[in-house]
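Long-time lurker, first post. I've been practising inverse folding by hand and with some scripts of my own, and I keep getting stuck on stretches where the structure tokens seem ambiguous. Below is the full token string for one chain I'm working on. Before anyone asks, I'm not after the true native sequence, just a reasonable design that respects the backbone. If someone could post their per-position residues I'd love to compare against what I wrote down in my notebook.
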């Protein structure tokens, strides 16, 4: 099940999403994406998906012209309001990542957080085709994922408890090896209240991801395991991968 735009990011699910990342972490992530994308003041960037705009707004504060796309209209409205209040060059659009059809005007595109892998291979292919079409020749794409096979499988646990501020998150996982899909039930608990949501992620190896990128004209030019540039290897928690549009 792909996370629902109307149900997944609401209630306690929304609260834990906001509590999970500090402003300092957002600053560090935007430092990294600006360097990885070789972005400069005045460049046009596409944030897909943008959520409530934490990266897009910060990139706009640094002088970039940013377009954010997402399906969660409440997130987009909040981000747009902040952009207007701060007179930032940032637009926010309701868009299915699989249906993106931008002209090649963006100097950089990024997909950060846990968004990559929410579609099966066909849907992922369409998303990456949209990314490639949106980039100018030589433009760069930054992708973050904690769910490549090399990260997920060596560290796989069926049940995980994680405190997030005054919230408690329970993740109950089921891995379908035949489909290459991780099904997760997320339960958020706060002050005796609890809410559950379900979501699925399709799991790719790094080699499969690289092949998908190359099929859309995006050449992998680098990857690492964290914001400090540590090498990505079997068991690394995350990957940050940079690809460049050819032609």
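-- Answer (accepted) --
I ran through it position by position. Result:
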């Amino acid at each position: 099940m792909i996370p629902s735009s109307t149900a997944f990011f609401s209630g306690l699910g929304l609260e834990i999403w906001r509590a999970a990342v500090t402003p300092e972490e957002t600053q560090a992530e935007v430092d990294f994406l600006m360097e990885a994308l070789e972005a400069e003041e005045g460049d046009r960037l596409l944030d897909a998906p943008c959520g409530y705009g934490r990266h897009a707004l910060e990139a706009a504060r640094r002088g970039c012209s940013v377009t954010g796309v997402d399906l969660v209209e409440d997130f987009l409205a909040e981000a747009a309001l902040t952009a207007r209040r701060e007179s930032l060059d940032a637009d926010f659009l309701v868009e299915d990542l699989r249906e993106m059809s931008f002209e090649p005007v963006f100097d950089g595109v990024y997909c950060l957080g846990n968004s990559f892998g929410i579609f099966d291979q066909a849907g992922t292919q369409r998303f990456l085709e949209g990314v490639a079409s949106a980039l100018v020749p030589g433009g760069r794409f930054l992708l973050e994922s904690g769910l490549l096979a090399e990260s997920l499988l060596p560290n796989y646990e069926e049940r995980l408890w994680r405190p997030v501020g005054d919230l408690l998150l329970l993740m109950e996982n089921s891995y379908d090896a035949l489909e290459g899909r991780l099904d997760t039930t997320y339960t958020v608990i706060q002050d005796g209240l609890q809410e559950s949501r379900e979501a699925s992620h399709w799991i790719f190896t790094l080699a499969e991801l690289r092949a998908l990128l190359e099929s859309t004209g995006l050449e992998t030019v680098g990857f690492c395991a964290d914001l400090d540039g540590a090498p990505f290897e079997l068991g690394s928690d995350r990957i940050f991968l940079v690809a460049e549009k050819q032609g």
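A couple of notes from the structure itself: The chain is about 30% helix and 35% strand. The two ends are 36 Å apart (CA to CA). Happy to go over any region you disagree with.
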